[in-house]
Write a structure and sequence with these properties.
Shape: elongated
Order of helices and strands: HHHHHH
Radius of gyration: 26 Å
Distance between the termini: 59 Å
Helix content: over 70%
Number of domains: 2
Largest sheet: none
Length: 91
C-alpha cells in the first residue's frame, strides 16, 4: 500500500506540470524541458511520478506451471496423448 500512496502523492503533486505539458501538446517531459515549457527539476519530478506509477502496476511474471499444479507443458501434453493412444491401441 505504501507504493500506491507514494505514487498518488507524486502524481497529484505533478498535476500543474502535466497540465502545462498538455496545453503545449507535448507528451515527453524532456521535450517540454527543451522547449522551456517546464524546468529540468519539474521534468525530473514528473519522471519520478511516472516511475512510481509503473512500480505500482508492475506485475510479477510467473511460469504457468508455477501457478497451477494441473498445468502441463506442451511436451508433457504430447507425451500424455501419445501414451493414451498407445494404451487404446493395446486394448
Amino acid at each position: 500500500m505504501a507504493r500506491l500512496e507514494k505514487a498518488f502523492l507524486l502524481v497529484t503533486g505533478t498535476e500543474d506540470i502535466a497540465k502545462r505539458m498538455r496545453a503545449a501538446h507535448i507528451h515527453d517531459w524532456q521535450e517540454a524541458v527543451n522547449k522551456g515549457v517546464i524546468t529540468q527539476a519539474e521534468g525530473e519530478q514528473l519522471a519520478a511520478a511516472r516511475e512510481a506509477v509503473a512500480k505500482v502496476i508492475e506485475v510479477d511474471d510467473f511460469a504457468p506451471e508455477a501457478l497451477s499444479p494441473i498445468y502441463k507443458k506442451p511436451a508433457d501434453v504430447h507425451q500424455f496423448f501419445q501414451e493414451l493412444g498407445e494404451q487404446r491401441a493395446a486394448s
